[in-house]
């Protein structure tokens, strides 16, 4: 879509505010969405849904922004979240641009896949390789349940975020 400069700036600011709100909800103890010890990785679906249908470079910047917000509140400050979200958002936007359509199903599949991939890679790099003793089973007791919970919350996030995207960009296909 060809948007004017003012509309592009407004859209970018609103997207960053949505990502910041998701980061605050995800990282604040009283606000975090949690059931039975499984936490919702809210920034994953929010940044992916915002990135789908956008230019690949802009999508990468949105992912980088979300990852930086996540890294600011993370106990491990290695830039893992920023790099992961940047790459995932770039790949999702490129897939929508060149291969598939921007639909609910594609948003859901990319969000679910990224939640499970994030959980596995984070567990592998920061639990197994780092050698945290006694935390080998955390993949099945925390990380995968959190990925499932994130996957279950994704449709609600999609409904909310797509309404905002439609207002800023125009219609998105179902």
Report on the architecture of this protein.
By secondary structure, this protein is mostly helical. It has 6 helices and 2 strands, in the order αββααααα. Helix 2 runs parallel beside helix 4 and helix 5 (104-128) runs antiparallel to helix 6 (138-169). The longest helix is centred in the C-terminal third of the chain and has 32 residues, at 138-169. It starts with a helix and ends in a 5-residue tail after the last helix. The mean pLDDT is 86.
Q: In terms of topology, how is this protein built?
A:
Blueprint: H1 5-27, E1 34-35, E2 38-39, H2 43-51, H3 56-73, H4 80-98, H5 104-128, H6 138-169
Tally of individual helices: 6
Unreliable stretches (pLDDT < 50, length at least 5) are: none
Roughly how many Å apart are the termini? 18 Å
Order of helices and strands: HEEHHHHH
Radius of gyration: 16 Å
Average residue-wise pLDDT: 86
Widest β-sheet, arrangement of strands: 1-2
Number of strands: 2
What fraction, in percent, of the residue positions are helical? Answer: over 70%
Structural class: mainly alpha
Oligomerization status of the protein chains: single chain
Largest sheet report: 2 strands, antiparallel
């Amino acid at each position: 879509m060809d948007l004017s400069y003012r509309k592009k700036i407004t859209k970018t600011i609103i997207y960053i505010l949505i990502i910041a709100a998701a980061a605050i909800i995800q990282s604040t103890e009283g606000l975090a969405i949690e059931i039975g010890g499984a936490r919702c990785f809210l920034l994953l679906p929010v940044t992916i849904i915002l990135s789908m249908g956008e230019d690949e470079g802009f999508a990468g910047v949105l992912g980088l922004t979300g990852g930086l917000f996540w890294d600011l509140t993370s106990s491990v400050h290695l830039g893992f979240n920023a790099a992961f979200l940047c790459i995932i958002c770039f790949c999702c936007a490129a897939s929508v641009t060149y291969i598939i359509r921007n639909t609910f199903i594609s948003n859901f599949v990319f969000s679910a896949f990224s939640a499970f991939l994030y959980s596995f890679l984070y567990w592998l790099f920061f639990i197994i390789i780092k050698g945290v003793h006694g935390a080998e089973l955390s993949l099945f007791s925390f990380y995968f349940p959190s990925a499932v919970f994130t996957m279950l919350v994704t449709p609600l996030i999609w409904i909310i975020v797509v309404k905002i995207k439609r207002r800023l960009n125009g219609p998105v296909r179902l």
